[in-house]
Known about the structure:
The protein has a domain at 142-203. Helix content is 58%, strand content 0%. The chain is built from 11 helices and no strands.
Amino acid sequence: MEQYTDDERVEDLKKWWKDNGASILIGIALGVLAIFGWQYWRSYRDAQAEQASQAYEAFLAVAEKPNADLARQQGQAVLTDFPKSPYAALAALRLAKLAMDGGDAATAMQRLEWVIANARLDEIKDIARLRLARVHLTAGQLAAAGKLLDSVATGSLNAEREELRGDVYLAGNDPAKARTAYAAALAAGGSQGLLHLKIDNLAEPTADMLVIAAPVAPPPEAQPEPAPAEPAAVPAPTDAVPAASAESAAVPTPVEPAAVPAPTDTAPAPAKPAPQVESAPAESAVTEPAPVAPPASTSSGQ
C-alpha cells in the first residue's frame, strides 16, 4: 500500500473542505445565533415575569381597598398585558372573587372558566373548578357542580372537594350520600369542627330528641340575710317587792307605791300581795328616835 505524500494530503483536505466547509460554517453560525437567541429569550422572559409580578402586586394592593372599579381595571390590565404569565391566572381568580362579592355570578363564572382554559398549572385549574362548582351550587345548578367536582384530581384538594360534594348532595335532599362525603372529607384531613357539625346536623331525630323539656325556672336571687333582732327588754318581775334594807327597817319611811309596768303582748302573771314590813325592835334605833310615821296602807288584816 503506497503512502500518501504531503501534496496528496493537502489536495484531499481541500477537496473535503470544498464539499463540507459551507455546511460547517452555517452550523457554527446557527449555533452562535442559538446561544445568543436563548440568552436574549431568557432575559426577555425574566423581564416580562418581573413586570407581571409588579403589575400583580399593584393589583393586589388595589384589591384590598374598597374601590372595586379600580381593582377590576388593574386586574384586567394584568390579563391583557401578560396573558401567558402565571400571574394572569391568579389575577383572574381574584377578579372572580370580586365579582362574587359584588353579586355578579355571571362574571365570576366567566373569570373561572378563563382560568380553567388558560392556566398552565393543573392545581390552579382545579382550584378554579372548585370555586366554579361552588358558584353553580349557589345558583342551584347541582348537576354542573357535581360534574366539575368529578374532574378535580389534585390530591391536596381532596378534603375541600369531598366537603363541597357533601354540600351538593345535601342540597339535593340526599343526606345519606352527604354523610358519606363528609366522612371522606374528614378522612382526607378536612376541618374537624365544621365537618362534625355538618354530620351531627344530618342525624335522624329520635324519641329522646323529640321530648320537649319543661322550662327550668331561673334560680332565685340571693336575698341578704336579715340582721338578728335584739332581744326585747324583759320587764322586771312584779311577783314580790324587795325587802327594805336594815336602815329603812330601823327608821320606817313612807313606802311609795310601786310603778306599774307597761302592758306587754303576753298577759302578766297576777301580782302577789307585797309582804308586810314589820318594824324593828326599839334597841336598834338611834339615840334619839325619830317619831315613827304611821305605816303605809297594807292589806286588810293588819
